[in-house]
Automatic annotation (TrEMBL):
The keyword Transmembrane applies. Residues 1116-1231 form the Response regulatory domain. Residues 862-1085 form the Histidine kinase domain. This is histidine kinase. Its EC number is 2.7.13.3. Residues 1263-1362 form the HTH araC/xylS-type domain. It catalyses: ATP + protein L-histidine = ADP + protein N-phospho-L-histidine. It holds the Pfam family HTH_18. The keyword Metal-binding does not apply. Keywords: ATP-binding, DNA-binding, Kinase, Membrane, Nucleotide-binding, Phosphoprotein, Transcription, Transcription regulation, Transferase, Transmembrane, Transmembrane helix, Two-component regulatory system. One of its GO terms (molecular function) is ATP binding. The chain crosses the membrane at residues 804-824. It comes from Niastella vici.
Length: 1365
């Protein structure tokens, strides 16, 4: 507002001198309201003392305070302060002056830190001077003002001197204001320096104004002279500025001065004197000229707007009742930017801003006009007065009249209540100038504004009385009737203050009409047809047709009305109905089309709860909501939102509180007061915002520019961002809009990733993750608060580095590696082919050698088999001769023969064992026995050799006896090899010993570990060869006098046999002293049992056989052997006890077995024509010969061969060579077993069929015979011929078979079967003897009786008497 000058600001002498002139001063009224907003410490400033303001060439605002420098982008402050130890920060936090040169460099003058240059690219400072080598231009200088001349040199007004700094050469020159004379130099304080449009340098000090003369390099002074009216008004120059017309204005402590063109004189402007103007104070702190030529003058007593053409002055000072007034009267600096925004720095009031581009709504706070200022009343209703003022009603029962011209409130008295304040809910001024006041709980008040009389209508029982005291809305229709909306009781229609109709949900009286909606009425609107629209809270809309007196209801369930809670209605000048809902947004109903059009937040609506709707003079719709005021342009269908940034009160608006006056002003009431404004005077911000990048974050951390950083320069000026692979980043940006930055809208796009623009509203951050390597361009644009989009985009290049495996160096490496791999693979291929060829040759050679070895082994195996038969023929007769020899000489010779035969047999066995070792066929064949005696027996076989070679031979054992499991053959071979070697390499008179001891360590409690040591005094073994002697074919070089005829495999076989027993063998030897072979072998401990003596050859026992089947009476034994000598040997030994039959191959043996039916067959395995295995299979498969026991003979000692032979059905298996007595004993045993079976089958003649399944062929044969006899037992004609035919055998074969199985001939077997059956019948039945005789097939009872007595040794009658007791 405009005020007159304050007299208390003048000195006493001024008051007396200029009192009368000031009384006649006129001060012009403002044509355009000036509203201010502020920025202070609550917005981010550290200090509210602002010394200088500047907007740089990039659009950023800079504020110099006494506690640092601040950069402002419209949204956020960035503080720059002195940091200890940081040479790139400000030297002092007291910032006094700011200046930007033509190159865009920002220079900062500090109080005690010299001058600093802000570097945009690094976002830090370079301080000048760097050292105190420039005289008075010091690092701690106080710089009050800075400017640059047309040559680019910087002029620095330091507190105590003027300096010119050349940024290019960094040279400093001190400028002397006085000519060099012998007079004392005057001490001056420099306060300001500028260069005008004519390239003149002006310097303001506390002792005058100085103009720099370039031609003479001197200064022309301008000072105050009381005698000169055209001199400066004061020598204390605080501000110098140039306006748009080239006028130089000088602000002093005693008025404003203007340099008169073409002269050296000044025109003075003060609030005193003959040409006084209404300045609030003559002490001028700052002067700023706008483009219209008006001066904005800051003083310690307020801000002055001075029009030099008219002399008018508008003064602005803080106003407690106006939130849009200044925050401080002490204006220290002023700055007007090119966008028409006025910035003012204050002392302790922060920054004040006047923006011509912005729309600041007027706000009248309730606590500024109500009686009780401690409690803010809610402005609940408006009505227009006849004089154009506005009636304002509150919920505290206060009614005011607001004068918009003077912005004053007048209290209107209308009623009082003894129960407290009368809450005003609604206001309406009728066409006859009556003010209807709807209250809550107190009915309707009718006020005559002209007379002040008040009439109160309340709820009553009469037909013309109101039916409710809660009047929520009031509307006068075109006929002059007043419609009252109540809170639950419907609608009351009044005419001439009498109720003429009542619309209620529950009509009861004659004048009550049914209302089709609930009675909670919130709004009325009358359309052009005179029909009344009624809005309810919770039941939708009801349209009352006055012509037909009917209703039409619109609700969400029968129309597109978005909500059934109606808050406000407006029928506009274009004939359209607007509906404001509670939470459902805005709806427009077109009656001609009978259609609702809805608008919500997604269409740009600020909030979906609409309390009041008004229409302005331009046809725009204005809405009050929960979050501010919103306007809607039906032509463009666009919304504009206004919030606290526009001066709108922060709290909610209220139901129905809004109006448009005749003069076009719009009012909206809310919880804090009311806003009012003229929509026609609202402006649109046409300033296109520039977008700046403000921050780069990687992994949620802000990035500082520098070497090794993704950006080399500050993000606001950086040209490129270089990111590592898979780095997630976020870019923040801001549009430089200082009018209403919170309503900026943004859109961004990352070229190379985004296909379309991302419109993000007010969100000013873009985040990206997992970008592929490559080049991108980030583009961003923005719109200001009025939707004006920037035409120039801000962009920055982004390069995402490939991972190390996708860099150019990696690809070079891949190429080199691939080439190397190709070359290497080619080399490997060639090498592989060579190796393959070599391996193939080696494989063929190996196969050839393996085949040769196989042939060798086969040859040795066959040879060993061939050897074993002759050895058997040698050892067998020799054993017999030894048994019958009586001469000692003969006995020694025979023993020598037997010993060498056994040696030969051992060699043969070693060859076989070697083959088995090669083919991994060796297995232990353990059996239970007494180990110590067995070892002693083996040892004793070398006794005669020791005597003959005169070698001392001993056997000792610490363990007398050990029953265990061991492989007799392999233990014997181990000892035989060791003792053979010991006797071979021990000279006469030497000694050999065998000792058996229990091992010291017994790791396994279930085994007995024995240490068996064979010690000799032979030639010994060198130490270097002791580990080799257990390898195959390794022989120690023996002396010439010892003939070593060994094969070199004995010790290797010995070691293998020891390992098979789970033991180990070691050797201790010294050359010429002898050797000791130590065996450590575990033997399993058996449970305590009777000692089993070594098995002896059983004596020949007479078999209890039946009568012989041939003339000799001896059992028949068939010998099948291809070796004639061996066959003769066996026949010669067996013929004394058996009838011996011979066959030289398996085929002949098969034929003789069928022809002769021998009692036992002894067969070799390896034979021509048919081998022994095949012969056994044929014999066992034939029912005629399957009962004959078979013994197999072979030179093959492996278990697999034995199992194969036994698996075919052979009864026993003997390996060559063998002791004949063993063969003889096994023959006798098998014949005895056969005899036992015959006896068993004879005693168990089957009367009843067997219960168990018969598996063998003999049992199947007997079962078939018994079954046949059971079926035909009563037939006296039952014969042997019929039985043989039944079982498929000849009579002779059946005879032999039955005789073999049962010991009876077929006739005897049939008779025995009948008699057994008869005995059973005698015991179990009551039949007579004759009946039983006939029943079992006897022809006469007499023959039956004789036969029965012959079998059972008693007559049938005696048997019956015995059994039937």
């Amino acid at each position: 507002m405009t005020i007159t000058i304050a007299f208390h600001m003048l000195t006493k002498r001024h008051i007396l001198l200029f009192f009368l002139p000031i009384l006649y001063l006129t001060v012009s009224a403002q044509h355009t309201p000036v509203n201010f907003t502020s920025l202070s410490s609550k917005d981010g400033l550290m200090s509210n003392v602002v010394n200088a303001i500047l907007k740089d060439s990039r659009g950023l605002m800079w504020f110099a305070t006494d506690d640092g420098l601040y950069k402002f982008d419209g949204t956020n402050f960035t503080a720059y302060r002195s940091m200890a130890g940081d040479t790139n920060s400000l030297r002092s936090n007291s910032v006094l002056s700011l200046f930007e040169d033509k190159q865009g460099n920002l220079w900062i003058g500090t109080g005690g830190g010299g001058i600093s240059l802000y570097r945009h690219r690094k976002d830090n400072f370079t301080n000048y001077p760097d050292t105190n080598n420039y005289g008075g231009f010091a690092t701690n200088g106080v710089v009050r003002s800075i400017c640059s001349d047309y040559t680019g040199k910087i002029w620095i007004a330091q507190f105590d001197g003027l300096y010119v700094f050349d940024p290019g050469t960094r040279q400093v020159r001190e400028m002397k204001l006085d000519a060099i004379t012998n007079k004392n130099v005057v001490k001056r304080t420099l306060l300001s320096v500028i260069e005008d449009s004519q390239r003149r340098i002006w310097v303001g000090t506390d002792q005058g104004l100085f103009l720099y003369k370039r031609e003479t390099d001197s200064f022309q002074p301008f000072t105050h002279n009381n005698a000169d009216a055209l001199s400066l008004s004061s020598n204390f120059i605080k501000s110098i500025t140039e306006d748009a017309f080239g006028n130089i204005w000088v602000g002093t402590v005693d008025g404003l001065n203007r340099l008169l063109p073409g002269t050296s004189g000044f025109a003075s402007y003060k609030n005193t004197g003959p040409h006084a103007i209404a300045l609030s104070n003559n002490e001028i702190n700052c002067v700023a000229a706008d483009k219209e030529g008006q001066l904005w003058i800051g003083t310690n007593a307020g801000l002055n707007k001075f029009d030099p053409h008219t002399g008018n002055v508008d003064v602005f000072v803080p106003e407690p009742d106006n939130i849009h007034s200044l925050t401080s009267k002490n204006i220290k600096c002023a700055y007007i930017d090119k966008q028409g925004i006025y910035w003012f720095g204050t002392f302790r009031g922060g920054i004040n801003k006047y923006d011509k581009n912005g729309n600041l709504f007027n706000l009248k706070l309730s606590n500024t006009f109500q009686e009780n200022s401690n409690k803010a009343s809610i402005v609940s209703a408006f009505a227009e007065a006849s004089n154009g003022n506005a009636f304002v009603g509150t919920d505290e029962g206060e009614l005011y009249e607001f004068d918009g011209k003077t912005e004053t409130m007048r209290r209107v008295q209308f009623a009082r209540s003894t129960n407290g304040p009368i809450a005003i809910i609604s206001l309406y001024r009728t066409r006859n100038n009556q003010l209807y006041i709807g209250s809550y709980g107190h009915g309707l008040f009718i006020l005559n504004p002209a007379t002040g009389s008040v009439e109160n209508l309340q709820k009553g029982a009469g037909a013309t009385d109101l039916n409710s005291n809660d009047i929520f809305c009031i509307k006068e229709d075109s006929k002059g009737a007043m419609w009252m909306g109540t809170n639950g009781d419907g609608v009351n229609v009044l005419f001439n203050k009498n109720v003429i109709a009542k619309f209620t949900p529950h009509p009861a009286a004659p004048n009550e009409i049914l209302l089709p909606v609930n009675g909670y009425i919130r709004a009325f609107a009358e359309d052009r047809d005179g029909d009344m629209w009624i809005g309810s809270h919770g039941a939708g809309l009801a349209l009352y047709h006055t012509a037909t007196r009917t209703f039409t209801v619109y609700a969400p369930n029968n129309s597109h009305l978005p909500c059934d809670k109606i808050e406000s209605l407006l029928y506009d000048s274009h004939g359209q109905l607007w509906i404001g809902t509670f939470g459902g947004g805005l709806s427009m109903y077109d009656k001609a089309r009978n259609r609702f059009t809805n608008y919500t937040e997604k269409d740009g609506l600020q909030n979906t709860t609409i309390y009041q709707i008004v229409e302005d003079g331009q046809g725009r719709i204005w809405l009050s909501t929960n979050t501010g005021i919103c306007s809607f342009d039906p032509a463009t269908k666009s919304f504009r939102s206004f919030n606290s940034q526009h001066g709108v009160q922060n709290n909610n608006f209220v139901h129905g509180s809004g109006i448009r006056l005749t003069n076009g002003q719009v009012f909206f009431g809310g919880l804090q007061g009311f806003n009012y404004f003229d929509p026609a005077k609202l402006t649109i911000n046409h300033n296109v915002p520039t977008v700046l990048l403000t921050d780069l974050k990687i992994s949620n951390k802000s990035i500082i520019a520098g070497n090794g950083s993704p950006i080399n320069e500050h993000i606001s000026v950086a040209q490129e961002i270089r990111l590592d692979y898979k780095q997630n980043f976020a870019l923040s940006f801001v549009a430089l809009n200082y009018t209403n930055p919170k309503q900026n809208s943004y859109a961004y796009k990352l070229e190379g990733f985004d296909k379309d623009w991302n419109y993000t509203g007010t969100v000013n951050t873009a985040s990206y993750t997992n970008l592929d390597p490559g080049h991108y361009t980030f583009r961003v644009k923005a719109s200001n608060n009025d939707g004006i989009w920037s035409t120039r985009e801000t962009q920055i290049k982004i390069y995402v580095k490939p991972p190390f495996w996708a860099t150019i160096y990696a690809y070079l490496f891949y190429f080199v590696a691939a080439a190397g791999l190709l070359l290497y693979s080619r080399y490997r291929g060639i090498t592989r082919l060579r190796k393959k060829f070599a391996l193939e040759q080696e494989r063929q050679e190996t196969q050839r050698m393996q085949e040769l070895d196989r042939l060798k082994i086969k040859f040795l195996t066959n040879l060993s088999h061939d050897f074993r038969t002759p050895i058997s023929l040698i050892m067998g007769p020799v054993d017999q001769l030894i048994a019958s020899a009586h001469s000692t000489n003969e006995l020694d010779k025979l023993r020598m023969v037997r010993r060498n035969a056994r040696r030969l047999l051992n060699l043969v066995n070693q060859l076989l064992d070697f083959r088995k070792m090669e083919e991994h066929e060796l297995h232990l064949q353990t059996e239970k026995g007494e180990l110590i005696s067995f070892i002693k027996d083996v040892t004793e076989s070398f006794r005669d050799l020791s005597e003959r070679k005169h070698i001392r031979f001993s056997f000792t054992s610490d363990i007398p006896k050990l029953e265990t499991l061991f492989d007799r053959d392999k233990i014997e071979r181990i000892l035989f090899n060791l003792l053979s070697n010991a006797f071979k390499f021990t000279r006469a008179e030497g000694s050999i010993s065998i000792t058996i001891q229990a091992a010291k360590n017994q790791p396994d409690p279930g085994n007995q570990w024995l240490a068996i040591t064979v010690t000799d005094t032979g030639i010994g073994i060198p130490k270097e060869e002791q580990e080799k002697i257990f390898e195959r074919f390794i022989q120690h070089d023996s002396p010439a006098h010892i003939l070593n005829q060994g094969t070199g495999i004995g010790l290797s076989i010995t070691k293998e046999f020891v390992k098979m027993h789970g033991g180990a063998i070691t050797v201790q030897s010294e050359p010429d002293k002898g050797s000791s072979f130590i065996l450590h072998i575990p033997f399993a401990l058996l449970p305590h049992q009777v000692t089993v003596q070594p098995t002896a050859v059983p004596e020949m026992l007479e078999l209890p056989v039946k009568e012989p089947t041939d003339a000799s009476g001896a059992p028949a034994v068939l010998l099948v052997e291809d070796n004639e000598d061996f066959r003769f040997y066996l026949k010669d030994n067996l013929r004394t006890n058996y009838k011996v039959l011979e066959a030289e191959n398996g085929k002949e043996g098969w034929q003789k077995a069928l022809a002769s039916h021998p009692q036992l067959i002894v067969s070799d395995i390896s034979m021509p024509e048919m081998d022994g295995i095949t012969l056994v299979k044929k014999l066992k498969a034939d029912k005629r010969t399957s009962h004959i026991p078979i013994i197999l003979l072979t030179a093959m000692t492996d278990e697999a061969q034995q199992l194969r032979g036994l698996g075919t059905g052979a009864n026993d298996y003997i390996t060559k060579p063998f002791n004949f007595e063993v063969l003889n004993a096994k023959i006798k045993s098998l014949l005895e077993l056969t005899s036992t079976m015959q006896s068993t089958y004879t005693k168990q003649i089957k009367v009843v069929g067997p219960e168990l399944e018969i598996e063998s062929a003999d049992e199947k044969l007997l079962q078939e015979i018994v079954s046949y006899l059971e079926t035909n037992i009563t037939n006296p004609q039952l014969s042997v011929e019929a039985l043989s035919k039944q079982v498929g055998m000849s009579r002779s074969t059946l005879y032999s078979k039955l005789l073999q199985l049962t010991g009876e001939s077929p006739v005897e077997y049939i008779r025995s079967f009948r008699l057994e059956k008869a005995a059973l019948l005698m015991e179990k039945s009551n039949m007579t003897i004759a009946e039983i005789a006939y029943q079992v097939g006897f022809t006469t009872p007499n023959y039956f009786a004789r036969a029965f007595k012959s079998k059972f040794n008693m007559l049938p009658s005696e048997f019956i008497a015995k059994k039937r007791k």
